[in-house]
Amino acid sequence: MAHKMAKNMKYETIIGLEVHVELATKSKMFCGCPADHFGKAPNTITCPVCLGLPGALPVPNKKAVESTIMLGLALECEIPLESKFDRKHYFYPDLPKGYQISQYDQPLAINGSFGNVRIRRVHLEEDTGKLQHATIEGEAVSLVDFNRSGVPLVEIVTEPDFRTLEEVDVFLKKLQQIIRYLGISNADMEKGSMRIEPSVSIRTLKTEELPLYRVEIKNINSFKFARKAIEYEIERQTEMLESGEQPKQQTRGFVESKGNTAAQRDKEEAHDYRYFPEPDIPPMRWKSSQLSAISRQIGELPDAKKGRFMKDYYLNDYDATLLTEARARAEYFEKAVSIQSSVVSPKAIANWIINKKIDLEKVTPAQLLDQILQSTQTTSVSDNELEKIIKQILSENEKAVEDYKSGKDQALMFLVGQGLKSLSQKGNASIIRERLINAIKSSAQ
Q1: Which 3 state secondary structure label does DSSP give 142?
Q2: Of 252, 276, 295, which residue constitutes the final position of a domain?
Q3: What is the DSSP string of 34-94?
Q4: For 121-176, what is each residue's pLDDT tens digit?
Q5: What tens digit of pLDDT does each residue of 344-398 get?
Q6: CA 177, CA 169: separation in Å to the nearest integer?
Q7: How far apart are CA 374 and CA 203, in angstroms?
Q8: How many beta carbons lie within 10 A of that of residue 134, not counting itself?
Q9: Range of the structural domain that residue 391 is part of
């Protein structure tokens, strides 16, 4: 694939993404049924509302609305002070009402950005049921499980700002990380709680206008499959253009077993869905104070936390990236640092968490520190050797010395760590700490 594309450098790929994420609320979007449907026996988590029975009325899930706004704020979106739900009509067996309650022209969040990618909108809707294709008594049939019907589903829609597969990959993984940091979903692709729908089109290089078509690939549930589907679609469309054929605007599905995409239907436009305001749910209006309260729940996001770890704990980019990969691991590290006995450096703690693959649920931060201290074998080091090492540490780490002088205790821990490193972890951390403090005091006199 890469070889074929390299030969044909006159085209440019245009990719946009729609990402669907099931929110981890206790109940569904518009009824009281449990939202945790994974692995449950078919059609055991249903009620008149999520089955779309006549006369059943929807009641919005406040937590789901707030989670969507929180995600919008994390993606630097504007939050309009008024939003509403709409009916999106289409007729498939997995949609019992014949319409989906979604959002059309007044979504909860708009005009955001995530790195170099513009976020068009973040809106909230209900998930559909799930079709299962099976053979019963020799006959091919399609079964419908409505357990998933009505589960809160947030949709993140980007502008067509991606040009490479690598950009798509980085964006999706960072988005999943932020969603998990916010605690609004586990975004587990294997369980279908995060699904990707890329839109792919091709244009001639140095063309400013977007192509007059786009091909949407539906419901991809892994980063690997997203990459394969886009790769295949780039090749398919490029070959069509090369042969003088114009690709059609359509929806296609990714066929995992074959690694290709297959046409499903011509791509619908908004008017095909016959949107109109949901008459059973009044518009939602917000006060600035309410939005501020939601914003305060966001906390420190991964990139900011990584930068702080590098600055405050003198960690390198690699260690800081691994420690902040998951919020639980980052919080575990900080707890260990906060209770450490002043002789274990943050770098040593980081090394143990990363290299020993510590089970955060079985080993408490305090127990981790005990393990580190017990593992340190001390040997006698001559005064001359130690003095030489202390001088070298101070001369090579002037910034850390200045930081310690200005009151940053973590800087001293960093210097102790450098001493242990020079002595191949065989020195006594307490003695190194004491000698460092004395040497810094002497140099200041």
Answers
A1: strand
A2: 295
A3: BS--TTPPTT-S--TTTTT-TT------HHHHHHHHHHHHHTT-B--SEE--EEEE---TT
A4: 999 999 999 998 889 989 999 999 999 999 999 999 999 999 999 999 999 999 99
A5: 889 889 999 998 888 999 999 999 988 887 776 555 667 777 888 888 888 899 8
A6: 12
A7: 63
A8: 9
A9: 302-444
**Radius of gyration over every alpha carbon of the chain, rounded to an integer in angstroms:** 28
Written as six digits, the tokens of 428 are 């006594």
pLDDT range class, residue 3, cuts 50, 70, 90? very low
In the chain, the amino acid numbered 74 is: A
3-class DSSP state of 140: strand
Answer yes or no: are the C-beta atoms of 213 and 247 closer than 8 Å.
yes
Cα–Cα distance measured from residue 30 to residue 47, given in angstroms and rounded to the nearest whole number: 11
C-alpha span between 153 and 309 (Å, rounded): 33
C-alpha to C-alpha distance for 38 and 314, rounded to whole angstroms: 42
Residue 97 near residue 150, CB atoms below 8 Å: no
Q: Which secondary structure element, helix H or strand E, spans residue 402, and what is its range?
A: helix 398-405
Residues 336 and 359 placed together within one structural domain of the fold: yes
Q: Please tell me whether residues 287 and 344 are part of one structural domain.
A: no
Q: Is 411 exposed, middle or buried (0-12, 13-18, 19+ CB in 10 A)?
A: buried
Residues 6 or more apart in contact with residue 205 via CB below 8 angstroms: 9, 10, 11, 12
Q: Tell me how far CA of residue 288 lies from CA of 61, 210, 347, in angstroms.
A: 20, 37, 42
| Burial class of 169 by CB neighbour count within 10 A (0 to 12, 13 to 18, 19+) | middle
Give me the amino acid identity at 25.
T
Are the beta carbons of 311 and 414 closer than 8 angstroms?
no
Amino acid (1-letter code) at residue 191? K
Regarding whether 266 and 349 lie in a shared domain, the answer is no
Of residues 67, 58, 54, 164, the one with CA closest to residue 108: 67
CA–CA distance, 282 with 263 (Å, rounded to integer): 38
Predicted TM-score of the model (pTM): 0.84
- Which tokens belong to 161? 């700002």
Half-sphere exposure of residue 350: CA atoms within 13 angstroms, side-chain side:
23
CA torsion 391→395→397→401, rounded to 10°?
A: 70
Element (DSSP H or E) covering residue 409: helix 409-422
> Are residue 255 and residue 308 in the same domain, yes or no?
no
The DSSP code for 162 is B
Q: What is the Cα–Cα distance from 313 to 411, expressed in whole angstroms?
A: 7
Fill in the DSSP letter of residue 344.
S
Helix (H) or strand (E) holding 233: helix 223-242
